[in-house]
Automatic annotation (TrEMBL):
Site (Role in the control of polyamine-mediated channel gating and in the blocking by intracellular magnesium): 167
Transmembrane domains' residue ranges: 73-94, 151-175
Domain Potassium channel inwardly rectifying transmembrane: from-to ranges: 37-180
InterPro entries: Ig_E-set, IRK_C, K_chnl_inward-rec_Kir, K_chnl_inward-rec_Kir6.1, K_chnl_inward-rec_Kir_cyto, Kir_TM
Catalytically driven reaction(s): K(+)(in) = K(+)(out)
Principal location: membrane
Region annotated Disordered, chain positions: 372-397
Family, per entry: Belongs to the inward rectifier-type potassium channel (TC 1.A.2.1) family.
Annotated membrane topology: Multi-pass membrane protein
Biological processes per GO annotation: potassium ion import across plasma membrane; regulation of monoatomic ion transmembrane transport
Keywords in alphabetical order: Ion channel, Ion transport, Membrane, Phosphoprotein, Potassium, Potassium transport, Transmembrane, Transmembrane helix, Transport, Voltage-gated channel
Example GO molecular function: ATP-activated inward rectifier potassium channel activity
Organism of this sequence: Aramus guarauna (Limpkin)
Record protein name field: KCNJ8 protein
Length: 421
């Protein structure tokens, strides 16, 4: 505004703006890496340029089950409507070929005993109603077949067979879509974030998993994979390189008893891809840890699978999950409001390799944590004492009845001395 009124020269304003832009640091956010597995378990993968589309029609049942609900319902409705219309046209042709559509036959019915192929079928509408009655086995008694036309009997048998096939396929498809395994996986939850902390003297990668239903998952097992972009010594670039990492389980089998939320632990040792990663390097790592929980649904016996993933930004170094299982009146209670809550704990910021080479780092970290904890306790106690002293002084000032009066003492020599107690 000032520059437009020529109060300040325009050259000065432009130079000042340029200087301010140079002084301000430009912070550019690092481009966010595309997730291979979303937090809800969906695969972030798009299939393009598939030339052999006919392979999906060879497995038509699986294709129908994989379709979206709106597409499945449209196909379900159209399959029945098209079959009813097709056989209605066939019944109309049979009646037309036999002469049942001729108006003169209606007048000669009582005299010459005219027997139609299907009674009361004299238009396409009546043929369509008879087609529905045949395929869905609804008989109202107005339209019925006779033994006059062998072709009509053949059409009846054909329509019954086709109707049974359509019922079996479409009803089976609807049942499979409602009883899919991933529906049960909606009640299997994972913690929003994972943590890295010390457990039993080792750095461990941990996350929490829980089941919201009372019906259990039988033979539940947990697998962890690391997905990252790697380059081989020969120069080959592998964009999605999957590496299995072991899960620390005190039981010999890999199965877990998921009756209450559990903390799944992976010990970062020499076999782990996280062995050389420190707290400072974790932010710069372009990796994704995929968690897969598999098990059999107790009520249906169908195998289900729940998935999630953790990227570097979702891994908290030096944190631990708070306990959420308590015993109340002889019953174990789970507080799901604290399912993903964590607290800071003492943990070395170095990698697991450095911790194995120098075990004294862990001892020093624990000692520093203990000293800081003691100092915080001392400060807290001193603040409490100071607050109590201030409260007592303020109470004495505000309440004069608490002030002790002066008392005079007489010595044996007869002199008086005033003292205040």
């Amino acid at each position: 505004m000032l520059a437009r009124k020529s109060i300040i020269p325009e050259e000065y304003v432009l130079a000042r703006i340029a200087a301010e832009n140079l002084r301000k640091p430009r912070i550019r956010d690092r481009p966010r890496k595309a997730r291979f597995i979303a937090k809800n378990g969906a695969c972030n993968l798009a299939h393009k340029n598939i030339r052999e589309q006919g392979r999906f029609l060879q497995d038509i049942f699986t294709t129908l089950v994989d379709l979206k609900w709106r597409h499945t319902l449209v196909i379900f409705t159209m399959s029945f409507l098209c079959s009813w219309l097709l056989f209605a046209m066939m019944w109309w042709l049979v009646a037309f070929a036999h002469g049942d559509m001729d108006p003169s036959t209606e007048n000669t019915t009582n005299s010459t005993k005219w027997t139609p192929c299907v009674t009361c079928v004299r238009s396409f509408t009546s043929a369509f109603l008879f087609s529905i009655e045949v395929q869905v086995t609804i008989g109202f008694g107005g339209r019925m077949m006779t033994e006059e036309c062998p072709l009509a009997i053949t059409v009846l048998i054909l329509q019954n067979i086709v109707g049974l096939i359509i019922n079996a396929v479409m009803l089976g498809c609807i049942f499979m879509k409602t009883a899919q395994a991933h529906r049960r996986a909606e009640t299997l939850i994972f913690s929003r974030q994972a943590v890295i902390a010390v457990r039993n003297g080792k750095l461990c990668f941990m996350f929490r998993v829980g089941d919201l239903r009372k019906s259990m998952i039988i033979s539940a097992s947990v697998r962890i994979q690391v997905v990252r972009k790697t380059t081989t010594p020969e120069g080959e670039v592998i964009p999605i390189h999957q590496v299995d990492i072991p899960v620390d389980n005190p039981i010999e089998s890999n199965n877990i008893f998921l009756v209450a939320p559990l903390i799944i632990c992976h010990v970062i040792d020499k076999r782990s891809p996280l062995y050389d990663i420190s707290a400072a390097d974790l932010v710069l790592q372009d990796l994704e840890l995929i968690v897969i929980l598999e098990g059999v649904v107790e009520t249906t016996g169908i195998t289900t699978q729940a998935r999630t993933s953790y990227i570097a930004e979702e891994i908290l170094w030096g944190h631990r999950f708070v306990p959420i299982v308590t015993e109340e009146e002889g019953v174990y209670a789970v507080d799901y409001s604290k399912f993903g809550n964590t607290v800071k704990v003492a943990a070395p910021r170095c990698s697991a390799r450095e911790l194995d080479e120098k075990p004294s780092i862990l001892i020093q970290t624990l000692q520093k944590s203990e000293l800081s904890h003691q100092n915080s306790l001392r400060k807290r106690n001193s603040m409490r004492r100071n607050n109590s002293i201030r409260r007592s002084n303020s109470m004495r000032r505000t309440n004069p009845s608490l002030i002790v009066p002066k008392v005079q003492f007489i010595t044996p020599e007869g002199s008086q001395s005033a003292s205040e107690t």
